[in-house]
Fold this protein.
Amino acid sequence: MAFFSKITGGGLGPSFWSPVETEDDLQKAIDESAERKVVLFKHSPRCVISKAVLQNFEKEVRHSSAADSYGFWFVDVIAQRSLSREIADRFSVAHQSPQVILLQDGKEVYNASHSSIDYHRVEKA
């Protein structure tokens, strides 16, 4: 739990995010997107901008009444560099960090990076 607080900046923690640490985790997120929309959040713990965007995103999610209808998956792009690249390749999106990729039925339906990340836009996608 301390590890998750460290990388998320003490945000919502493991009860909110499911970590993507293996290819099996990524497949679980993709499978979940058949039942409900899934948000993949790619974050660099070394980047101040990424941390600020993550904290803002978490704050927006906390204040949303629709957040329970989404799955939230977290990718540490430093620790999971190869998975981060695989996500970019699999969904044909340029690798960015921070980045949000919204999945529905196993496909990317929306993505945003840096200051364009806004949970309210995710809800509208």
The longest strand covers residues 37-43. The beta strands are 18-19, 37-43, 70-76, 99-104, 107-113. The first helix runs from residue 2 to 8.
